[in-house]
Automatic annotation (TrEMBL):
Molecular function, one GO term: peptidase activity
Descriptive protein name: S16 family serine protease
Domain Lon proteolytic, first and last residues per copy: 153-238
UniProt keyword Hydrolase present: yes
Phylogenetic placement of the source organism: Bacteria, Bacillati, Actinomycetota, Actinomycetes, Kitasatosporales
EC number: 3.4.21.-
Sorted UniProt keywords: Hydrolase, Protease
Any one biological process term the GO annotation gives: proteolysis
Source species of the chain: Streptomyces cellulosae
Amino acid sequence: MLSRLSRPRAVAVCALPVVALIATAVFAPLPFSLTQPGLTANVLGDNRGTPVITISGAPTRDTEGQLRMTTIEATNPDTRVSLGDVIDSWFRTDQAVMPRDAVYPSGQSVKEIEQHNTEAMTQSQDAATRAALKYLKLSDKKVKVTLKLADVGGPSAGLLFTLGIIDKLGGDGSGGDLTGGRTIAGTGTIDADGDVGAVGGVALKTQAARRDGATVFLVPEAECSDAKAELPKGLRLIPVTTLKSAVSSLTALASGKGSVPAC
């Protein structure tokens, strides 16, 4: 035997599952990470009292200007991110939501992720050294390069490491600095052949760069549109695809001669 509910009671009973679903969606953990502009570091200088680049086996130059590698900060891989967090970040320009798998390797523990990022940084540093010495036609058997950057993982500083090594060893090739005395920032992976790769999070990295005084930002060409999306005022974008194109753009910018590409 069935009994009929009054309309108010029926609405209340039907609403309960809906409320429960909404509450679950709002508070349930989602597979996202919250990201924001992170630290930047001048690879031509010191980081926490230690030179980022140390070179032996070849004479080095005193440099002016800065080459700042950029980072993003992300919530820890085990941090619970809710729908409310996602909605809040949606309306902010200084924070972004990224799939967790785009920030951290999937299916790994926090310790394994930290180890992965450390290994990626080490591989990036090795590739940067090889690319720089190859560009300068120097032997890696005679020239030793040590790169140290505390509390930063991943491969995205590769391009800036490479440019820093070149600036310390050869500058612009005519006695001047690659930077032209400017504060240059940027991002991008690099391989031993000097090819520059995309990294992600560039819209946040441009904000970090401008915050720390950069007026020029080197960006992998494939990410120009992302970099332009929230481009801070006073920051000039230069797209790069290879180490050679990055050096050519910087020397043209410093000398005022030749064309400098733009996004």
